[in-house]
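Researcher: Re-running this chain for the archive, since the previous output was lost when a drive failed. Same request as before.
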Amino acid sequence: MFDQIIEGILLAMSWEALALVALGVFVGITVGAIPGLGSTTATAILVPLSFFMPPTLGIPFLLGLHKGGLFGGSIPAVLVNTPGTASAAATTLDGYPLAQKGEAKSAIQMALYSSTIGDTFSDIVLIVAALPLAAIALLFGPAEFFSLMVVGLTIIATVTGGSPEKGIISALIGLMIGFVGEDIVSGAERFTFGIDHLVEGVLLIPMMIGLFAVSEMLIQVEKKISALSQRGISSELGRGQNLSKKEMVRNLPTIFRSSCIGTFVGAIPGTGAAIATFISYAFAQKRSKRPEEFGKGSYEGVAASEAANSAVAGADLIPTLAFGIPGSGTAAILMGAFLAQGLRPGPSLFQENAPTMYAIFTLLLLGNPIMLLEGWFLTGLFARLVTIRQSILIPLVLIFCMVGTYAFRGNVDDVITLVIFGAFGYALRKMRYPMPPLVIGFILTPTAEESFKQALLLSHGDYLTFLTKPISALFLVLSVMMLFRAAWKPVGPSRPSAEEKQ
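Model: Regenerated structure tokens:
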């Protein structure tokens, strides 16, 4: 094992790997700083680029992009009271009041330091926890693994979004799309309707880019985003003071506590950065010695929200890598990148690809000081992106989506799939159906179906095998309990999810 760790570190220490992580972080902050975009959209758009690189280059590039996007969302949140990502919504509560006091520069620096510490903490937890959890999952048989897929999808469906019912429907739609193609055992065609392109099933990459990126651009066409002038932003940052060491030290306990909250919440499939952020913000206000400052320009409020949302970056990969259950929409896209690179997330990932995974973990950690340096020296540049015109941005993004999708296999049918799912995703968003359960349901379908049929073969067709095995029965009981809880929830107007608010 020690030899594999050394091999992985040596793979990570190439200039190409470090340069691509730095590029990913730069692009992530850039996209996060543009109101209306976010790390999920950016990852979906750029995921085809990773397929032309080795796994130790392509995956870290996307992970760096995810890191940078979470911090980048704080820039417009502070400057123009418009969060670049949903997870930065709580940052506006104190970041913008600080900017109005002429302290925009120090507020963004607090966000940068808090994000770096929170992200580093969750990365360490990921590295420490993922391997033991994967080792435990190796002890599972087909019945236990199928039940694990069921409970994971149930959590995601009932927690994501403002309405559990819509989350469940979204997950079921993903399952139905996942059944399109050839039967995993018999090879018979299912739900192809005579269309040759569907025999191999719906491809994950065009589907994800359409659902996340194209639909988001269509939504942004309807929005009007206010922004400061470039001149105003430049002068605001130029005359601002740097964050004092005293203020930073005073907020270290809040940052550490929020990092723990973000890591814990982020490791639960379906929760996401937005939920972790508001939980952390509320807890920080409750524990603060100066709670009356929250909402009026509190550095503690900025630290709490930014440490928590960045801590999710590593935490939502814990169930993804250990069990093959994506913890969020971005994790689902990253899982698609892993699969395209021949790395199958789940219990056997670390056994079959140990040096590659240690290289990825090393670059994951190195991405944090890189983000700190880029954020410190290039904040002024990123701040100017707040004013980019949507009339220029949206067509460019749509063109990039189509070019990237076509480049994946050089097949025009993939572009058609992209357009169809873009329109479908737009319709679902307008009706406030969350996207992550759909995509995660689609991703889990092949694994769940394979485990289900293997369990039946081993038990000679006895369906009770899922209930007679204690761990499998426990997972199924948990799923049923969560479904009943969602069904008995008091009826009322559903509140939009964090994703819908963006």
